[in-house]
């Protein structure tokens, strides 16, 4: 359906007027998705040192003891991607989005071969709010919905402890993901 036009405010004083519609936001999401820009590989050396769980099989034994038994203290790698186009809706005070993502974990063997060990589909809701401070445009990002594993499949291993993995995922997103999005995407944001 064709979007209905909205009347924009008119003022006699100088001002910045920014109008974003669902159509514009979802077109941008579609473009990024189809271009393959919503993919990221994370290796153990990319995680902050203060992160409580490093990407090594000995650390992942909490979720699957058989992983540590089969691959003693090997580095791991995560491949993240959007499996569907993100959905965005515009509201007067914020942008709301739903992300449909997948994470596949690999063990990196000494000969650099990557062995897939599990695949996890995770959906999350986020909200972005614009802010203006001293003539600077910024914003904040926050999780509004609980990211829940929609599917957890161990490849050749017994089922992973999904609840523990979910807790770690929430902790990691709240501690590192959202603050990093705020600092990189919106460097002039106000908490």
From TrEMBL:
It comes from Sclerurus mexicanus. SMART domains: BPI2. Its main location: secreted. The keyword Cytoplasm does not apply. It comes from the Eukaryota. The lineage of its organism: Eukaryota, Metazoa, Chordata, Craniata, Vertebrata. The gene is Bpi_0. The cytotoxic action of BPI is limited to many species of Gram-negative bacteria; this specificity may be explained by a strong affinity of the very basic N-terminal half for the negatively charged lipopolysaccharides that are unique to the Gram-negative bacterial outer envelope. One of its GO terms (biological process) is defense response to Gram-negative bacterium. It is found in: Secreted. The keyword DNA damage does not apply. One of its GO terms (cellular component) is extracellular space. This is Bactericidal permeability-increasing protein.
């Amino acid at each position: 359906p064709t979007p209905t036009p909205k009347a924009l405010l008119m003022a006699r004083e100088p001002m910045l007027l920014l109008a974003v519609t669902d159509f514009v936001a979802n077109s941008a999401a579609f473009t990024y998705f189809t271009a393959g820009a919503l993919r990221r590989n994370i290796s153990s050396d990319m995680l902050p040192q203060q992160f409580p769980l490093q990407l090594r099989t000995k650390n992942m034994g909490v979720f699957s003891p058989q992983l540590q038994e089969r691959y003693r203290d090997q580095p791991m790698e995560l491949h993240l991607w959007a499996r569907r186009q993100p959905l965005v809706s515009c509201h007067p005070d914020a942008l709301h989005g739903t992300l449909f993502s997948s994470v596949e974990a690999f063990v990196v063997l000494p000969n650099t071969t990557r062995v897939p060990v599990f695949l996890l589909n995770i959906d999350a809701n986020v909200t972005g709010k614009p802010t203006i401070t001293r003539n600077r445009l910024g914003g904040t990002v926050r999780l509004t919905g609980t990211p829940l594993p929609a599917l957890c499949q161990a490849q050749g291993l017994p089922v992973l402890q999904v609840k523990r993995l979910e807790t770690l995922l929430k902790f990691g997103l709240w501690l590192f993901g959202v603050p990093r999005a705020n600092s990189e995407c919106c460097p002039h944001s106000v908490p």
